[in-house]
């Protein structure tokens, strides 16, 4: 791909990027996708044709990566496919349209003025200062205000939401939205609710790790396995020593599977066995019963064999 400008004009020229690109698009985008977008932005200034094969070679990126990058920017509506190729959308116009769309977004000042309390406005400014270095994009004001209204979070929970995403290095809308949905489903409104939720999650993680270790499972448990453990500990309310008996029983029968362990624990639950002593007594009774059954079978077999031998003796005479 050859540019028609001479070296001197290229040396002293520059490509402008709106600041809103850095606040709205850069944090969420793959680094290779950003690379492709910036180069397309550069080419558009010279009205050059965008060819995927040329981009692949020039940027030293695999052809499929360039294809994925172009599709990504199309979904973000920054690249618009035309009959003859692609055109670049005006980022500032897009964000301005979002900002003033009726009944959907509000300007930062509108959000501040319509906030239910000074505490909410203060929380929003804290989010701006702590997580956006004081240069939070205007559209974030709308999103935060919307989440306040949708989920009923108090100010501390909203701050915790952004802090959680920040620590996970996922400070973008999709992750924040998904996390907020999860918290809301767990009836989180206040910081006390959130504190209780985190304590519960920590306890669950500890139990999951302990069970996985005892079963020599050096992998992350599946969602279904985690749901089984929640059933055993929170629905059936079994203590760990009872669960450990089930794990040992499964191991001794070479059936270290969650479905088998779940069958054991469900059976004990239905039999109203709650403590390790009750379970141990029950299992011992099964062993005794099995022992008596085997003894009866052995006696019957010996009697049958003895009778047969006596009948044989009749023919010896």
Ordered list of secondary-structure elements with their pairings:
Elements: H1 7-11, H2 19-24, H3 31-45, H4 52-59, H5 63-75, E1 79-82, E2 85-88, H6 91-99, H7 108-114, H8 118-131, H9 138-151, H10 155-167, H11 173-185, H12 191-214, H13 223-235, H14 240-252, H15 258-270, H16 276-314
Antiparallel strand pairs: 1-2
Helix pairs in contact: 3-5, 4-5, 8-10, 14-15
Would you give an account of this structure?
The chain has 317 residues and is an all-alpha fold. It folds into 3 domains: 7-94, Winged helix-like DNA-binding domain superfamily/Winged helix DNA-binding domain (Arc Repressor Mutant, subunit A); 104-189, Orthogonal Bundle (Arc Repressor Mutant, subunit A), CATH 1.10.10; 195-274, DnaD domain-like (Arc Repressor Mutant, subunit A), CATH 1.10.10. It has helices at residues 7-11, 19-24, 31-45, 52-59, 63-75, 91-99, 108-114, 118-131, 138-151, 155-167, 173-185, 191-214, 223-235, 240-252, 258-270, 276-314, and strands at 79-82, 85-88. Strands 1-2 form a two-stranded antiparallel ribbon. Helix 8 (118-131) runs parallel beside helix 10 (155-167) and helix 14 (240-252) packs across helix 15 (258-270). The longest helix has 39 residues, at 276-314. It is elongated, with a radius of gyration of 34 Å. Residues 1-6 have low confidence and may be disordered.
């Amino acid at each position: 791909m050859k540019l028609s400008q001479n070296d001197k004009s290229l040396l002293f020229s520059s490509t402008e990027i709106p600041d809103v690109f850095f606040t709205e698009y850069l944090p969420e985008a793959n680094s290779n996708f950003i690379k492709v977008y910036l180069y397309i932005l550069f080419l558009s200034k010279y009205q050059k044709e965008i060819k995927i094969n040329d981009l692949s070679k020039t940027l030293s990126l695999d052809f499929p990566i360039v294809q994925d990058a172009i599709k990504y920017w199309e979904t973000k509506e920054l690249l618009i496919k035309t009959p003859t190729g692609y055109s670049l959308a005006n980022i500032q116009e897009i964000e301005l349209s979002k900002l003033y769309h009726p009944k959907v977004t509000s300007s930062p000042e509108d959000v501040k003025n319509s906030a239910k309390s000074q505490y909410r406005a203060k929380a929003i400014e804290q989010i701006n200062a702590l997580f956006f270095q004081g240069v939070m994009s205007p559209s974030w004001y709308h999103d935060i205000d919307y989440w306040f209204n949708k989920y009923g979070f108090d100010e501390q929970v909203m701050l915790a939401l952004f802090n959680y995403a920040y620590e996970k290095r996922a400070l973008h809308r999709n992750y924040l939205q998904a996390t907020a949905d999860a918290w809301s489903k767990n009836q989180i409104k206040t910081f006390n609710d959130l504190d209780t939720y985190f304590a519960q999650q920590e306890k669950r993680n500890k139990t999951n790790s302990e069970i996985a270790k005892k079963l020599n499972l050096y992998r992350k448990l599946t969602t279904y396995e985690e749901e089984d453990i929640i059933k055993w500990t929170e629905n059936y309310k079994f203590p760990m020593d009872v669960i450990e008996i089930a794990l040992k029983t499964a191991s001794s029968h070479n059936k270290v599977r969650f479905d088998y362990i779940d069958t054991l624990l469900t059976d004990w639950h239905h039999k109203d066995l709650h403590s390790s002593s009750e379970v141990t007594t029950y299992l011992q009774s099964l062993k005794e019963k099995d022992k008596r059954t085997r003894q009866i079978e052995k006696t019957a077999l010996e009697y049958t064999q003895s009778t047969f031998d006596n009948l044989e003796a009749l023919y010896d005479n």
